[in-house]
Amino acid sequence: SIPLSFFGGLGGASKCGVLIKGSNYLEALANTQIIVFDKTGTLTKGSFAVSKIHAKDISNEQLLEIAAYAESYSTHPISQSIKHAYNKEINNSRIQNVQEIAGHGVSAVIDDKTVLAGNAKLMNREHIQYEPCTEAGTVIYVAIDNKFVGYILIEDEIKDDAPFAIKELKANGIKQTVMLTGDNDAVGKKVAKKLGLDKVYTQLLPADKVAHVEELLQSLHQTNPKGKLAFVGDGINDAPVLARADVGIAMGGLGSDAAIEAADVVLMTDEPSKIATAKKIARKTLAIAY
Ligand code: ADP
Ligand code: MG
């Protein structure tokens, strides 16, 4: 049977805006020693500002327009940011055959031309010769009919409460903090350094994130069979990794329906510090129960 104090714990957490889908997850949270974060929208705000537009053979305005059109159907934070920078109405009749390529970017047919917008991985995959951007930031390379036409550099900010969240988690039984991201190495390392994370892995596809979590789980269970691992994410691509973790935590506000569905814990406000709050409540509840 479930100790009575568990109901208090679940209720206390929900009052703080943390929805825990069962007392078993409260217990797992109390025993969590490794916490793995997604980057975009989880530790960073996910609302990128365009910091540079570098066009080749077309104008900067044309580059931004073609990128906004290619991104028009995506719900990814990158796409929202590009559409926001473009800030004009989009004529949907010009767009056909839109495809989102997880961990890579998007492809669409615009005015009968094939447009690709995404990272270096996408350009390499399609064998497109491009000018690499050397500045730090998230880069969206754009190609029209397999010809590179420039890149857009965008920058995200660390969430205000993220440094506090990391400190609080470390003070409350977390032994290792890890970040997994599909973004480039420069951005990933910069964020990890600023937050003092123990480990960072970059340029990952959704399947790579699952593989890293499995590896971390294995090494944790070798040293501590009772230790648990939590993963925190927001995106639709995070569902497999949310399901694989002992405790899957989703950002409820920014999160996709698939992520919220797959999660064991949902944060109603997208503040990572809420995880530390939940961890504290979980530890206290367990201490009272046993
Ligand atoms: P994260 O791991 O930071 O949450 P994702 O796995 O969602 O990132 O995406 C990884 C990378 O794939 C992004 O940094 C970006 O380079 C590229 N990407 C994903 N979706 C898009 C998109 N809609 N437009 C352009 N690039 C994208
Ligand atoms: Mg993400």
Descriptive notes:
Helix 7 (185-195) links the parallel strand 9 (176-180) and strand 10 (199-201). The longest helix has 18 residues, at 206-223. The protein has two domains: 5-44 and 158-289, HAD superfamily/HAD-like (Rossmann fold); 49-155, Calcium-transporting ATPase, cytoplasmic domain N (3-Layer(aba) Sandwich), CATH 3.40.1110.10. The protein is an alpha/beta fold. Helices cover 39% and strands 26% of the residues. It is built from eleven helices and 13 strands. Strands 1-13-12-11-2-9-10 form a seven-stranded mixed sheet, sandwiched between helices. The chain is elongated and about 70 Å long. The mean pLDDT is 93. The structure holds adenosine-5'-diphosphate and magnesium ion. Residues 38, 40-41, 233-235, 238 line the site of magnesium ion (MG). It is found in: Cell membrane. This is Cadmium, zinc and cobalt-transporting ATPase. Belongs to the cation transport ATPase (P-type) (TC 3.A.3) family. Type IB subfamily.
Structure described in brief:
Belongs to the cation transport ATPase (P-type) (TC 3.A.3) family. Type IB subfamily. By secondary structure, this protein is α/β, with parallel strands linked by helices.
